[in-house]
Amino acid sequence: MKKKLIFIPAILFLVITIANAQQPMKHEDTELYTPVPPVVTPGKSCGDAPSDAIILFNGDNLDKWVLTDDTTKPADWIVHSGIVTVKKTSGNIQTKQSFMDYQLHIEWRIPKDIEGTDQARGNSGLFLASIGKGDAGYELQILDNYNNKTYTNGQAGSIYKQNAPLVNPNRPPGDWQSYDVIWTAPRFNEDGSLKSAARVTAFFNGILVQNNFELKGPTRYIGLPTYKGAAHGAAPIKLQAHGDKSKPISFRNIWVREL
Ligand code: MG
Question: How far is the CA of 16 from the centre of ligand 1 (A)?
Answer without folding.
Answer: 67
